Amino acid sequence: MPGKLFEVRWHGRAGQGAKSASQMLAEAALDMGKYIQAFPEYGAERTGAPMKAFNRISDEPILLHSSVEKPDLVVVIDDTLLGNPDIVAGTDENTIMIVNTVRDSNWVRQKSGFKGKICVVKATDIALEELGRGTPNTVMLGAIARVTGVIELKYVEEKIRDMFLKKFGEEVVQKNIRALHRGYEEVRCDA
């Protein structure tokens, strides 16, 4: 990825943590010395409504200021969105898709028509086991670190600590770090 602009488009529903995860991804990359952008795009601003978030990460200043049209990575936090043509818009066989699902990559490909590399992780299940609630965003960040190498886990761990320690305490920090590591370990990719 050196010098190259790496673009991420997140698809989820409002309230699932896509905006927070895109912010944490950006801040972790910033701490690694990268240039970053992170911004959400909402339709109807209500819990459960489909929404998108975007990231750009680069070794050089980022001069683009628009939504991500041709993502290198598509992150799908809610697999019920897979039939939506927005998910695959601007993608090709070089694009990677990471999906939070209990299903396999063949099901994702059939449902979405996606042509690139598909990775799946049971992020909601892991979040329920580790955090006691179905918020899959830290699990997805672990999967992103494993699949793309665009961020390193230690930087995400620092962001988790920064975000949660004062507000929720060490126990919540540790639960999120375990969820992050499980996303890293348990993501599975085709081909």
From TrEMBL:
Residues 14-185 form the Pyruvate/ketoisovalerate oxidoreductase catalytic domain. It holds the Pfam family POR. One of its GO terms (molecular function) is oxidoreductase activity, acting on the aldehyde or oxo group of donors, iron-sulfur protein as acceptor. InterPro entries: Oxidoreductase_gamma_subunit, PorC_KorC, Pyrv/ketoisovalerate_OxRed_cat, Pyrv_flavodox_OxRed_cen. The lineage of its organism: Bacteria, Thermotogati, Thermotogota, Thermotogae, Thermotogales. It comes from the Bacteria. It comes from Fervidobacterium thailandense. This is Pyruvate synthase. Keywords: Oxidoreductase, Pyruvate.
